[in-house]
Amino acid sequence: MKIGRIGMIMLLCLGYISGIYAQTFDKLWKQVEQAEKKSLPETVIKLTDEIYRKGEMEKNSPQMLKAYMWRMKYRERITPDSFYVSLKGLEEWVKYADKPMDRAILHSLLAGIYADYAARNQWSLRQQTDIVGVVPVDMLNWTANIFVDTIQTHIQKAMSDSVLLLKTSSRTYIPFVELGETSEYYHHDMYHLLASRSIEALLRVQYLDKQKNVKQHISRLYDNMLSAYREKGDKESYVLTSLKFLRWKYESNYSFYPVIDKAAPYVLAEDPYIIDLNKLATDYKTLDICAEVLLAKANLILERQQPLSALKVCEEAIRLYPDYRRINALKNLREEILAPFLSVSTVKTAFPDQEMKIKVSHKNLDGFTIRIYREKKFVSEQHYSVIRPENYQSQDTTFIFKAPGVGKYVMRIVPDVRAKKEIEKEFNVTHFYVLTSELPKEQFEVITLDARTGHPISNAQVTLYSNKDVALQMFTTNEEGKAIFPWKSDYSYLIATKGDDTFMEKKDIRGGFFSSPDMNETTEKVILLTDRSLYRPGQTVYVKGIAYVSELGVAHVLSDREYTVSLQDNNNQEVGKRTLRTNEFGSFTTSFTLPLACLNGDFQLKTPVGNASIRVEEYKRPTFDITFEKQEGDYQLGNKAEIKGKVQSYSGVLLRDLPVKYTIKRSAYSFWQLRMNDQIASGEVTTGADGVFTIPVQLEGDTLYNNGKGNYFSYLIEVTVTNAAGETQTSTKVISAGDTFLYLRTYLMPKTCKDDPIKLNFYASNQGQLADVKVTYRLYRAKDKSMKQLENTPVITGTVASNKEIFLDWKDVPSGPYVLKISAEDSLGRKGSAETSTILYSVHDKRPPILTPDWYFKTNTEFDATHPAVFYFGTSEKDVCVMVDVFSNEALLESKVLHLSDSIARFEFPYQASYGDGIAINIYMVRDGQVYQEIVRLSKRLLDEKLNMKWDVFRDKLRPGQTEEWKLTIKNPQGKGADAEMLATMYDASLDKIWKQRQTFNVFHYRNLPHISWMGDFTSSIWFDYEWDKKLFKVPLFEYDHFVIEPFSSIPAVAGQGVEEFWIRGIASPSQQNRAKFSQKNTRMVLEESVVTPRTSDLKDDLAGNVPAIFQEKGETISPVTDNIRTNLAETAFFYPQLRTNEQGEVSFSFTMPESLTRWNFRGYSHTKDMMLGTLDGEAVTSKEFMLVPNLPRFVRVGDQTSVAASISNMTGKVQSGTVSMILFDPMTDKVISTRKQEFKVEAGVTIGVSFRFTVDDKYSILGCRMVADSGTFSDGEQQLIPVLSNKEHLIETLPMPIGGEETRTFSLDSLFNHHSATATDRKLTIEFTGNPSWYAIQALPSLSLPTNDNAISWANAYYANTLAAYIMNSHPRIKAVFDSWKLQGGTKEAFLSNLQKNQEVKNILLSESPWILEAQTEEQQKERIATLFDLNNILSNNSAALRRLQNLQNGDGTWSWYKGMNGSLYVTTYIMELYARLFMLTGDKPTELALAMQQDAFIYLHKSALEEYKATLEAQKAGMKMTGLSGNMLDYLYLIAISDEKVPDVNKAAYDYFLSRVGGLLPSSSMKIKALAAVVLDKAGRKKEAQEFIASLKEHLTKTDGQGMSFAFNENPFDWGNMKIQTHVDVMEALELIGGNEAIVEEMKLWLLTQKQTQQWKSSVASVDAIYALLMKGINLLDNQGDVRITIANEVLETISPSKTTVPGLGYIKRSFTQKNVVDARTIKVQKRDQGIAWGAAYAEYESPIRDVKQQGGALNVEKRLYVERIVNNVAQLQPVTEKTNLQVGDKVVSRLSIRVDRPMDFVQLKDQHGACFEPVSNISGYRWDDGIGYYVDIKDASINFFFDHLGKGTYVLEYSYYVSREGTYETGLATIQCAYAPEYASHSASMRVVVPSFEK
């Protein structure tokens, strides 16, 4: 039997092989071609697979190569992930290929593929630090250097045997190689083909190469090619290769690009590129191929804007090489240079006799004629001659054309040289110029003016029209040309007429506006002040509030008022609330305790009338800082600059003998754009005795940027210092150097009043540093306002010092236009200059100082009873009507007309009480078709009075714990003691290094001023652009031999890679059961880990070479705290919110300083009852002569061998020696655990480090640590708490269990419980299952709501989604029944909760500590509102309102505007029509009368648009244009007709038939939506066979995935706007359903839709309702099944339909937990789905395990963690892998690199990455980040860094962030855990590792 079966298989195989042999390769490739034309990718894959195997059997490499690449390409099109599999296949093939030539080709292919991939992802790759020493297995984790190295390796192997390549003809590799005619010059050798491909690959990755090896490699390849062809004597190939080499050589050199200056023509003879081309042309002038050299030269000269010289080169080449096969390229270039060019523009509307400006751009033309026609009758013509430019460059000229009389005309412009066609445009001539604007009280004003004179046109008829061209109203203007009338929203545009003047164009009535702030003149506000801006969780925030009211610029406090102050966390959730009453000074005070566990970031203090923000972070206070000194002296490129800095502790100690590591990065800028950024130097220096260090910076330029034109360089110096205790800090400084060494600048206002001395400052700087030089200034009078021509002699000169404010007296200088020029020379002889221009004027001028239609300046625009407002308006024109309107907030107060003639009018407005906060004055006039307008806003003058605060007693040097009294005086502006209240607070200044934010302390006066503006006529232009028939010659293309492979368009991009300190949005905290919170009076901390501690008896001192440890007996009580032990380490020294002055304005207060050794910032805020404010700042330092400052870890972990270090500073002036001790004790009992001691000796002025090591065990949950240094004479110490984390981790591992309808599956549980590790304890297994998850989709139905945006698309979407959702709900009575049962259960329990709110106990981060609380609440509310869909009356009422809004937005031509007043849009109209046509098709309902009327109007427009496009298409075809395909607009048009009852009008039938005939050409389209629409169109039109071809193509693009149904895999992560991928999926489902015969596929596509809901929150209402319709309304009714699932594990059985066990009816939801040994030890679980429809669930394994034993676990969601240490090698940062054998050093920068893989799109993914106790995060600031298109939140915790992604598309993401190593020892690094919070069954965790930081002699 067995032998028979084997025989049968062999016969079948032989038959199959014979079948392959029976077909020739050509026949098979023809079948491939046919399948490609029909867009059948699966068929192509099948055929190319046959070709590959046939080639393999016949050892036909070319056929195998072509088939493999074809198959690879098409696999990628369907499933992009197959790219990696195919690439791996090529890597395997090259290993075993036995032909050297095959290997060379395969290496070339691999180099090209890797280069394409790297180039596609180069932005992400450039952000990363290179990994060295290891190559990750997964290419998605590679860095740029690995790609570059891999590409170069493959290229070297491809090119290694040059002799073989030169001998091998590319013809031998047909059909994989397609021959190009140009390769004849290379004799079709494989050497040129592979070398060219190699260069192309390297060019694609040249910017990823930080070592600059790629450029050398390219140069070497060119050198080798040139040498090879030179030795062979192939001159033509040598010339062509030289041309390519020269082009690359100069294009890759930025300094080569010259600056083209028309004033100084570019000297071609000096151009290095042209010099090389000339040499090449001379050396090989006898060869015809040399014409290519001259062609390159001519094109280059043309780029240099010298067409005359280029023409000469063309003519020379044509003369020398007339028979060259591509000589026509030079002839065409000559034709292009000699071709005529004409472009003319002018205004579309003119007034009679207007001198219309005709703007002309022209070349190679002598002139043109303007002909004017009226009603098709010739009126006049005028010829204009132009000067033909001798250099063949285009030239701009302006002519004047006198407009004819009133009328409607056609202008035709006829060039002297006959063009392809004549162009004519309409233009109007009218007297009218119309202004429009809103007025107060919903009035509207129209003013009709004479366009030339600006005088009013009285008795004009103004007709108002709607947007549907219906005349609504007519008004007649008065003697002032004005018509005022009530505003109506229906008014859209107007036309003014008078007598025969009826030719005004339509004018949009909107644009001019009047607005008055809708706000009370009385403004109530609360100022909120806090003790500082940065806090840790659990700390106290002290708050003071000051309530005041501001009215008409006067403020006063609000006493005895009640206010509610709330504290809101980073999720805008309230975490504290106080109700308070103000005192007589309008102030209140309170405090809030911050939550211990929260999402770190911005918190808000809020009152109804005032807010303030604070920052909450889990930071560690720095103890020292690095500052840079001001750069002195002049320097330039090529110099060596010395950058000095200082390292000093916050307690004032200068830190000497510390290593200072630095890097210098140079950024090159060319023409002020960033061109390059690279690291040029690195090194290490040491601080001196004064704490100062000096970094040498060589100000080097770069050869790429040495053209000396507009280039400059910035140098970023970053220094890193690690102190004696292991703390690391960084600081940066930027200096610059460039081509311009001395930079001068000054500024004058465009208008300058000369009556008073003029304030100026002549700024001089050198590379960003202020330079002290003598500046000479010269003031020149300009000849006109253009400032281009100046008088020869300056009117004023002088010399002053730079960078100092000066006052110049120019009152005797005549008014007029002037240019101020300044110049200077520095100490090195470098010169600089600058200029600025202004118009000098005087208030005594009688006429404008320049010729101008309008002249305005102000003297005072802030007025009160004693200071009137004064301003001036004038004109140089004669007989001008100037209109003046004065507005208050309420009304038009005054309107008058002034008559000016070359004069200036003075305006003076005294303040009146009726003006309130102020008035607005609109001054406007019209002259020569232009409106001139000045809007002057006059505001009431504010009192600017401040309190003066001055110290009487203040000491800036204090001792820790010192009691102190300070005193100050507060005086009012009159110098008398102020009756004021004051807030005095002082906080640790080191916090400003982490987060610095000054508090807002000022009075807000709201200025309630009106806004007014007229809308004048918009002067549109008409354009005439001409084309001429060019005598173009056919040119053979340059075609080289090439591989027959198309670009890998589907090469995936690596999402979300990055290298900043953080790269993802998120937070992570441990399980709820394992939280421990620690607090003490002055220290609050919370660590989100399970907590354990150190074994007392086994605490070991691991410090080799130290003084032997002295142990105290176990159980001894620690000695009481003495004065020399500092325990009060508060970060706020004091907060006195309501200090009061005495009669003299004095305030005194006393306080006791905290005991931290640091610098303190004092902030004083004072205010009076009338809200005069004052501030006072101060700095104080707490220090001692002898100080010990410990660097304690944020936490320690059980099992770690850790260390505690401290620095000892000796400022006593003498050598100090003694003993330093560390005592560890139990803070709960004060029992000593262990004492360590060692001796020390510290020189005067020196700081040393000491360190103690011990091993942590699990006896204590928190440790007290006291460190004391005692020299006998001096003593200092500090006592703090250290949390202890367990080395056991509480883990949750998950196993998703999806299952299909009527299916039985057995799932393996082997991977759970850490692969059932023996060390996994406290096990619990939870089984959760949903028998019918279709109900989750029902819960996503959008509830009834009306849009907040008043636009057509929003209203259409609301109508569509609500109507269809209600139809679905009310078509299934069971839905209502199930919902009613859910409500009876309790309304908002399990059924209505958001997925984010469910299953908190099996999530690695609590919802309350995530940034998604608002999203969870929104989804919960949306589910609760679904009941509104059952109220049909409410739906009908609201939908009627939506239809009425749409009717209002529809225009007269049938189009819809997006917003009211916008032009009608074809896109918006088509979109709305598609929605409604689909709605009526899906529901089967008839449209309402109103909807039908709108639809008919819209179809009239769509038919008209289609007809116009049809006619335009025919015209284009007549002109010889080849038309292919079908526009998207016309496909939508055909689709609308197909799915609606619309009949095609007779006039449109030809157009319809034509467009329908083009639909078949859309078959190759890559858009599945287009294919689906086309299939529907063809099917409805009766073209069934063609429709089936589209359906066949759609089916072959679908991919089936186990458990996820069928979908378009290549459509996984398109732009997610509006859920386009779901919409496309539904469109295809509808097409398959409509055409029929595809029921099984439709059901599989339903499965995919449902699984999308499992991991994503559907947000688009239209996409959601369409998807739900597709799920429920066709095929199998998924709601009919009961969700009958039986689950068997061990001896336990769970059933979803059991009433007693089902948690949520309908869903068939069950959830049970087990701790029984037989269940948790089970290795399999059996799931049976006993009815139709899918189901899903998961097993959650909870357990405790030692971190060290935890193995990597993941599946659909996976995370891997790797650590790297950053090293600088040859000035390039590199990441070297960290292993347990790596010896890290304190101060090292370690990078955690997380690789995240997601196999399907997921919303709300949270990642938590623990870190070792020896690591200190580089950044302490949480918040949102955006990187490479991925947004995320990062939350810095003490023991982990947590990240949150709103959405992750399918793919792999790489995340990097950095730490500094802060202490010696051996440490566990912890785990990285990731979970989809929306579907917690998808989770993963990494393994941990151990790192070693050995001690070393310091």
TrEMBL record:
Highest taxon of the lineage: Bacteria
Pfam families, sorted: A2M, bMG10, MG2
Annotated transmembrane regions: none
SUPFAM superfamilies: Terpenoid cyclases/Protein prenyltransferases (SSF48239)
SMART domains named among the record's database cross-references: A2M (SM01360)
Ranges where the Alpha-2-macroglobulin domain occurs: 1132-1222
Entry GO MF terms: endopeptidase inhibitor activity
Protein family: Belongs to the protease inhibitor I39 (alpha-2-macroglobulin) family. Bacterial alpha-2-macroglobulin subfamily.
Protein name: MG2 domain-containing protein
